[in-house]
UniProtKB/TrEMBL annotation:
MF term (GO), any: UDP-3-O-[(3R)-3-hydroxyacyl]-glucosamine N-acyltransferase activity
Taxonomic lineage from the root: Bacteria, Pseudomonadati, Bacteroidota, Flavobacteriia, Flavobacteriales
Source organism per UniProt: Flavobacterium haoranii
Name of the molecule in the record: UDP-3-O-acylglucosamine N-acyltransferase
Pathway: Bacterial outer membrane biogenesis; LPS lipid A biosynthesis
Known partners and oligomeric status: Homotrimer.
Length: 336
């Protein structure tokens, strides 16, 4: 897919300095630019590269004036970094602009879908599924019975959505993610075995949620596991049954949230955090990476450690943690 300097300038409302017919088909860092690539210059620290880059087109601020000869065609805009981000978003939309139903695919009875559906090959759509407009479901995906998927949502290749799940508008679910699998519910028996507790609830994912690759969101035992609007989940996260995650909370990779825990809105949770079940985490809480959360947290708390405690106290305590051998030696000398 090729774009000319004139086309790009039109999208960005910029001005071309150089060849308006120059074409690009790839993106690059300015220091790694090659023929046919598009790059940008926003940080003055990298200004020297504009004189040596082989990139065909470079986006720059309107204030930029070259101090020596350049070979790259310039597109001058108000803010080069913002313009490049806008272009990336446009490119991504064009790249994902697919429609139609590829074969082989299975669409069961009672399925309804809106305009602009893309259904990749080897997909299975269960009974009575409702799919909105401009939904993209990439190859090898499974959608169980009675699932609802809102407008403009994207499910990448190999996504698995179990029955009764509700997915809102403008959601993105990445490859290998499983939504609606059974919660981890087993009742101990007198003979030492465990009997499975049926998991008959569902998962509700509200609008504008993004879930990374290979993350698992379990269905509720009863009721719903709920991911509120605007939540962003990284790759390889475990969300257990009946968990509720509040609006615009972000959670980094390898975090596990145990059953029935309620997490507030606008929280930031680092990677490899473990959160026990049946607790409440308030709004605006920040949990540093590799922390263990064993009790409820109030609004706005910032914690670290395992078990986690106040972040400032943890930082001060860490100075002493790493000096413990020396402190013990001095203590032993004092005792003697």
């Amino acid at each position: 897919m090729k774009f000319s300097a004139a086309q790009i300038a039109g999208i960005l409302e910029g001005d071309v300095v150089g060849n308006p017919e120059a074409e690009v088909n790839k993106l690059a860092k300015i220091e790694e630019g090659t023929e046919g690539s598009l790059t940008f210059l926003a940080n003055p620290k990298y200004a020297n590269y504009i004189y040596t880059t082989e990139a065909t087109i470079t986006i720059v601020n309107k204030s930029f004036e070259p101090e020596q000869e350049i070979t790259t065609t310039l597109i001058k805009v108000e803010d080069a970094k913002s313009a490049f981000s806008k272009l990336l978003e446009y490119y991504n939309q064009v790249k994902l602009m697919k429609s139609g139903i590829e074969q082989p695919s299975v669409i069961s009875e009672g399925v309804t879908y809106g305009e602009g559906l893309y259904l990749g090959s080897f997909c299975y759509i269960g009974k009575n599924v409702v799919i909105g407009n401009n939904v993209k479901i990439y190859p090898n995906s499974f959608i169980g019975d009675n699932v609802v998927i809102g407008d403009n949502s994207i499910l990448f290749a190999g996504a698995r959505v179990y029955s009764e799940t509700v997915i809102g508008k403008n959601c993105t679910i990445h490859s290998g993610t499983i939504v609606g699998s059974d919660g981890f519910g087993f009742a101990p028996q007198e003979d030492g075995t465990y009997a499975k507790v049926p998991q008959i609830g569902n998962v509700i994912i509200e609008d504008n949620v993004e879930i990374g690759a290979c993350t698992t969101v379990d269905r509720a035992t009863l009721g719903s596991t709920i991911i509120r609007k605007g939540v962003k989940l990284d790759n390889q996260i475990q969300i257990a049954h009946n968990v509720e995650i509040g609006e615009n909370t972000v959670i980094a990779s390898q975090t596990g949230v145990a059953g029935s825990t309620k997490i507030g809105k606008n929280c930031m949770i680092g990677g490899q955090v473990g959160i026990v079940g049946h607790i409440t985490i308030g709004d605006g809480v920040r949990i540093q990476a590799q922390s263990g959360i064993g009790k409820s947290l109030k609004d706005g708390e910032v914690v670290q450690g395992s078990p986690a405690f106040n972040y400032g106290d943890f930082a001060k305590s860490f100075v002493h943690f790493k000096n413990l051998p020396k402190i013990v030696d001095e203590l032993n000398k004092l005792k003697k």
